[in-house]
Amino acid sequence: MSMTTPMKKAFRRGFRDCSPFVAIVIPYALLFGVVARDAGLAVYEVMSMSILVIAGASQFTALALMQEHAPVFIVLLAALAVNMRMAMYSAALVPHLGKAPMRLRVLMAYLMVDQSFAVSVKTYEEEPRMPLEEKIAYYFGCVLAVCPLWYLCTFTGAMIGQAIPAHLSLDFAIPVCFIALVAPMMRSLPHVVAAFVSVLGAILFSWMPYNLWLIVAGCLAMAAGAQMEFYLERRAKRA
């Protein structure tokens, strides 16, 4: 699909809008490369994981469970549970990108990351009249600002991780990244309820082995958010 001038502008705009996350993606990816090598993975194993999964939170979860010698089933289940948010992201993007050609939707699904979703869906909701072609171009602009850096910095961390001074504390990038992503999305009561329940569930079930509290907290949060949406809809109909 050749790009028209409006599509090129949308692509550049997406790249520009997602560029601030570079400051988070770089240390986040470096940290994964360092931690994965420390856990005993070879460089090709680190890169295979990053290229196939492209999901930092899920990769860190799997890595932590592998270090605890958790059963393979538990590792896969926990990683899948953490990555289930991608299914929700996809559902949220269907009204905007659902009519794109199948080959592009497959590629967009593979490249989907938290940052590209958060930035693109916010723009789509603010500009509902944006043409489909421009939405697609905007989305790929967003992912191009993030995904290549994820690969490159993971490789860099895996190669020179031991040379990075411990006092740099690259792990600051993980909470900062998710705060930057989640905070602007707390725009409705169901969102707030889901976030509150997830935090409460994580605290109450932190005793569970193999980080299974992640799965429990996530399921409780999704159920609570959905029930709040249903309650608000019923109340609106009665009014």
TrEMBL record:
InterPro entries: Brnchd-chn_aa_trnsp_permease
Keywords: Cell membrane, Membrane, Transmembrane, Transmembrane helix, Transport
GO biological process: L-valine transmembrane transport
Membrane-traversing stretches: 136-158, 164-182, 189-207, 213-232
Subcellular location: Cell membrane
Bilayer topology term: Multi-pass membrane protein
GO cellular component, one term: plasma membrane
Family according to the record: Belongs to the AzlC family.
Name the record gives this protein: Branched-chain amino acid ABC transporter permease
Protein source organism: Stappia sediminis
